[in-house]
Amino acid sequence: MSGRxxxxxxxxxxxxxxxxxxxxxxxxxxxxxxxxxxxxxTLAALLDSLNEFDGVIVxxxxxxxxxxxxxxxxxxxxxxxxxxxxxxxxxxxARLGTGVFAAPLAVxxxxxxxxxxxxxxxxxxxDHDARIGHYVHIAPGAHLSGAVFMGTGxxxxxxxxxxxxxxxxxxxxxxxxxxxxxxxxxxxxxxxNPARYRRDLSEEELEC
Length: 208
Ligand SMILES: CC(=O)SCCNC(=O)CCNC(=O)[C@H](O)C(C)(C)COP(=O)(O)OP(=O)(O)OC[C@H]1O[C@@H](n2cnc3c(N)ncnc32)[C@H](O)[C@@H]1OP(=O)(O)O
Hints:
Blueprint: E1 4-8, H1 12-23, E2 28-32, H2 43-48, E3 55-58, H3 63-75, E4 83-84, E5 89-90, E6 95-96, E7 101-102, E8 107-108, E9 113-114, E10 119-120, E11 125-126, E12 131-132, E13 137-138, E14 143-144, E15 149-150, E16 155-156, E17 161-162, E18 167-168, E19 173-174, E20 179-180, E21 188-191, E22 196-200, H4 203-207
Parallel strand pairs: 1-2, 1-3, 4-7, 5-8, 6-9, 7-10, 8-11, 9-12, 10-13, 11-14, 12-15, 13-16, 14-17, 15-18, 16-19, 17-20, 19-21
Antiparallel strand pairs: 21-22
This protein binds acetyl coenzyme *A.
């Protein structure tokens, strides 16, 4: 894919997405961010200049903020695209939503379903028949076995693994290095080996 790409989010994750986009052939890349002075402009500026871009992706690591921004852009018919690093291995039978990012060495297996705005971060894997909801983040080095189910906005911490067929409810955060062997409810924090429910997410955490 070549052309002009707008990335909303000029932080560390945005730069990872930009690297993948450049390797993948996008030749002009502009950052937009409300909080980074070096960005070309704010979200408002991006909304005003959408017709200058061939593609737009939201590169905000926090799942709720990424979702909010993507839904806002969708109301303005932004040309949302997926950025898949050329070293990512996506099965031909996997189904990807829009605004998906697959980092270097990420894998999505046969018949996997990856929701809008999901992040498959560096060297993570999502195996066959898994269903990954919208705005999920699979952090670097996390591995999901076959036929797992992740609700909207789930966060799987760096280096974690999830046993086959396990289901995790919306917005739940699984801590770094966890081993998930049982289903987890929505809107909670869980971690450890085996991963256990620790507490519910606070209203404040659910807002960020
Ligand atoms: C490219 C990128 O960088 S992507 C980013 C990748 N980063 C991640 O995946 C990080 C995921 N986040 C975590 O693991 C966090 O520790 C969370 C969300 C699980 C918990 O965060 P908090 O609620 O703030 O917990 P906090 O740091 O206060 O720790 C509370 C206790 O839990 C323990 N704890 C926290 N996380 C873990 C974990 N993953 N495994 C085991 N114990 C943990 C702490 O040691 C502490 O124990 P103590 O009370 O005995 O001292």
